[in-house]
Design a protein that fits this description.
The chain is mainly β and 211 residues long. 8% of the residues lie in helices and 47% in strands. It is built from two helices and 13 strands.
């Protein structure tokens, strides 16, 4: 029996996200971004999973985006960075999921992207330790983007979470909201100014996508 493409992936892992909005990012609750636009970097770190029989465990895919207005209005411009440890099969599998070709909840997010200006292979380092994270896209001496993320803490001493928001890059899972002590990004491929800021929005969390 042939399995349909709508039921051919199951992946889970961790999210690291940072942008130019103040914390907590208004995009997650459907409001317009601070300053009228949002310059975001979103990394999905796949800990375990397969796509159409291809094992994509321990691989990362990153979306670097310019969001020109309300997040739900779409028309995003994006550069996609694929972990350079990926084989050709793994790269194709991850792109098929995260560009929405295989359906599922992630396809709704992918539909917001109006233009992918480039797909690049590069070194990606993404780590999370007790809610704090670091993300580097590109080689250590000349990264395309680099961020250090710290969660906001609640009165109980536990990280602050956001659930059931109108927009999410990890639909169905709580988001651990925080700030980025460092957020630097090269804007050339997107035709945007470089970014070098501190204290703005960050998000961490876990995901499981199946379709």
């Amino acid at each position: 029996m042939t399995t349909s493409v709508e039921t051919t992936y199951d992946i889970e892992g961790r999210l690291l996200e940072v942008c130019t909005c103040a914390a907590v990012c208004p995009c997650w609750v459907g409001q317009d971004p601070d300053g009228g636009n949002c310059q975001g970097t979103v990394a999905w770190c796949v800990d375990r999973g397969t796509v159409q029989g291809v094992d994509v465990s321990d691989r990362v895919i990153v979306l670097v985006v310019h969001i020109p207005g309300n997040v739900l209005a779409g028309d995003w411009k994006a550069v996609v960075y694929v972990d350079d440890r990926c084989s050709g099969e793994q790269e194709e599998a991850l792109l098929n999921v995260f560009t929405g070709k295989l359906g599922g909840a992630i396809a709704d997010l992918a539909a917001l992207v109006g233009e992918v200006v480039a797909v690049e292979r590069t070194a990606v380092s993404a780590e999370v330790q007790e809610g704090a994270g670091t993300l580097r896209i590109g080689p250590p001496d000349s990264p395309v983007a680099y961020a250090e993320l710290t969660p906001l803490m609640g009165a109980t001493g536990r990280p602050t979470t956001l659930s059931d928001s109108v927009f999410s890059t990890i639909p169905g899972s709580p988001a651990y909201v925080g700030t980025a002590d460092v957020y630097r990004r090269d804007g050339r491929l997107l035709g945007r100014p470089d970014i070098d800021i501190s204290g703005m929005n960050s998000v961490q969390g876990s995901f499981r996508f199946t379709a």
